Amino acid sequence: MTKVRLSIVSTCTTASLELAEPLTATAATARTWLLLEQPGPWGTNALTHSHLDPALATALSAALEGTETRLALIRRPGRHPDPQAPRRVYVAHTEPGRSWVRTTTLTDPAELLDLDLAALGEGEHRGLWQPHDGPLVCVCTNGKRDRCCALLGRPLAAELTASGIETWEITHIGGHRFSPTLLVLPYGYAYGRTDAPAVKEVTEALREGRLVTDRCRGRSAWDRPGQAAELAVRELTGEDGVDALRVTGPRRRPGCRCVGGRGHPHRRAPLAGEHRGRR
Question: What's the pLDDT at 257?
Fold first, then answer.
């Protein structure tokens, strides 16, 4: 296994480690993820700086506006030749108790414009495509966005693939200073500063319906205050059921979130200022 010294990889990664910056409440926010296979090079803004038709990328971005669905590009770990049709596509919804992944292959990615993106954002797949079983691991490797994502993310993605864990490389999911960072679908939990043994523990636990909170950045279904509140309640109660807790946000008290679920009374979690939308 190739090892890379953090001290020579990225000043932001190294600085984040030296400052012991918390991982909590740093996950990207999206209730639904739409993943499109796009091999080949990715630029800083991968949707428009790749071999994907930029007009299609712009149209998809516009169609997704306001749907709480986030589009990302994926590719298989390893060498990245230009795409050969058909391309793999996934859509995943991340809310507790109704998380799912559906998948298909498309010859023409413009077919994504025909989807009911608003319904997908609400968690309604309506029998679309085929169900996908098991955790789907997506490791950020967008080196043009930040080089540490490539230098730390790509070796991790390759190692996970070699170990038999279904893994894709993915474009920027936020938090490159926490590299290597990844997203696990359908649950939408993001992890940072991780390695292959830790990811194996995460995926094995998820198959059993349990959540590993070590190195967890939060669940993408929630906003940043909600991510902080959920993880705080898990730490307080020891609850590890992946779908055991839901987060609600009382509008009259923007500095708190309520967290509860089966067997748990709702707990009001006051939030520190750093998680009140200032990131």
Answer: 72
67 conformational bin, left if phi > 0, alpha if psi -120 to 50, beta if neither: alpha
H or E stretch at 93: strand 87-93
**Residue in 35, 42, 69, 52 with CA at minimum distance from that of residue 167:** 35
SS3 state of residue 157? helix
Residues found in the chain: 279
Domains and CATH numbers, the chain: 1-221 (3.40.30.10), 222-279 (no CATH)
- Tokens for 202, please give them: 């995460």
Which residue, among 249, 247, 277, has the nearest Cα to 260 in the 3D structure? 247
Asked if pLDDT for residue 154 goes beyond 50, the answer is: yes
Rounded (10°) CA dihedral 26, 191, 139, 9: 80
Residue 21 pLDDT > 80: yes
As a whole number of Å, the end-to-end CA separation of the chain is 35
User: Which residue matches tokens 């490791």?
Assistant: 139
Q: How far apart, in whole angstroms, are the C-alpha atoms of residue 111 and residue 105?
A: 11
pLDDT value at residue 255: 56
User: SS3 for 259?
Assistant: strand
Q: How far is CA 239 from the centre of its chain?
A: 22
CA distances (Å), origin 184, targets 6, 48, 96, 97, 206: 24, 24, 14, 16, 9
Handedness of CA 72, 77, 81, 87 (dihedral sign): negative
pLDDT, mean of residues 160-183: 94
- Of 72 and 17, the one with more pLDDT: 72
φ, ψ (nearest 5 deg) of residue 50? -145, -170
Q: What 3-state class would DSSP assign to 107?
A: coil
Residue 266 and residue 263: Cα distance in Å, rounded? 10
